[in-house]
């Protein structure tokens, strides 16, 4: 398992991921979440038994990749932030949860295992941005077209998830939590050959980016 390496204010921080968790249905307005669950149900995606959700994912799926191999043409990313617990700190970075949409209709947890969580190579200390967290923006482009654009005020906070992790004895070095996402623009084709996510602090104009190319694998010989 390869460690993740982050540039934190010019210092390299290395983290060996031991626990990877994907939050789901994690909007701060749970009324909006309920409406989203209903919309997905109409598309055949099974409704969760509770919200927000927390999906354990194989730790090796946390990566800093430039290329994401996929098995078919119906996979796509999601703009998210990632919480990374180190030996002595908590970091925040950009992330893109690449999801198999064909598999999602059979089980969200299964679909999370079918693609990686791509993280940025730069990170901020959570303590340095937590005081103005809701001002941070999250933006995604699919194939060069803007598909998601919002702020962290739309999502449950890192502090909420840290409390949740502590209650489950998971707030320990090597744990990475991916936040859940914000709404997508329905008119943009999410099944694109490139994905990019920007996490921006408007107070400093500093941006953390993760981006990658989606590469179709050869058809199986079977």
What would a concise description of this structure say?
This protein has helices at residues 30-42, 101-104, 108-112, 126-129, 158-167, and strands at 4-8, 11-15, 19-24, 53-57, 62-63, 67-70, 75-76, 79-85, 90-97, 99-100, 117-119, 124-125, 137-142, 145-151, 175-178, 194-201, 206-216. Strand 13 and strand 14 form a beta hairpin. It is an alpha+beta fold and 222 residues long.
Structure keywords:
222 residues; alpha+beta; Fumarylacetoacetate hydrolase, domain 2; 8-stranded mixed sheet; 5-stranded mixed sheet; 17 strands; globular; Fumarylacetoacetase_C_sf; DUF2848 domain-containing protein
Descriptive notes:
- This protein is an alpha+beta fold.
- It has one domain (about 5-215): Alpha-Beta Complex (Fumarylacetoacetate hydrolase, domain 2).
- Helices cover about 15% and strands about 40% of the residues.
- The protein has helices spanning about 30-40, 100-105, 110, 125-130, 160-165, and strands at about 5-10, 10-15, 20-25, 55, 60-65, 65-70, 75, 80-85, 90-95, 100, 115-120, 125, 135-140, 145-150, 175-180, 195-200, 205-215.
- The strands form four sheets. Strands 3, 4, 5, 8, 9, 11, 12 and 15 form an eight-stranded mixed β-sheet that branches.
- Strand 16 (about 195-200) and strand 17 form a beta hairpin.
- It is globular and about 45 Å long.
- The chain starts with a strand and ends in a 6-residue tail after the last strand.
